[in-house]
Amino acid sequence: RFCTWITSTENRLYIGWFGVLMIPTLLTATSVFIIAFVAAPPVDIDGIREPVAGSLLYGNNIISGAIIPSSAAIGIHFYPIWEAASLDEWLYNGGPYQLIVLHFLLGVCCYIGREWELSYRLGMRPWISVAFTAPVAAAAAVFLVYPIGQGSFSDGMPLGISGTFNFMLVFQAEHNILMHP
Fold this sequence. Notes:
Structural class: mainly alpha
Strand content: under 5%
Oligomer: single chain
Mean pLDDT: 94
Shape: globular
Low-confidence stretches: none
Order of helices and strands: HHHHHH
CATH topology: Photosynthetic Reaction Center, subunit M, domain 1
């Protein structure tokens, strides 16, 4: 009965088996993003004990606020909450960034699967899910592949408006992409 309800195309909102994983991961990423954007303490992004504030409660506004990437001291190591000695340490080292990014990437990959699953159930061709793979690949490149290539999540794009522009300027400065032949 539950399996029939999950895969039913008669529901107002299609869930599907991919949706069973997509919904909690995207809700987690969204909830942590909102909480961290409003109230996260400063993060030691460079690993030199000089924290950078990105949340609204620490003096930023909607434009300058951002979720600061994980500390360079963490590198590309997986840094879940239970690996830190305390919640304060996890916040100080930028743990919310990894939590948000990894849950977000898993959630949008499940969204692709859910799009495919819905088209399969309706007997349609899966071009919508194929088209959505391009922005997902771009997000994975910026949030996962590039930091792994650089050796640290601290090189990932901060999650905010000014953080996005800062990332573009730093990317150009370090890799000279505009003058590349």
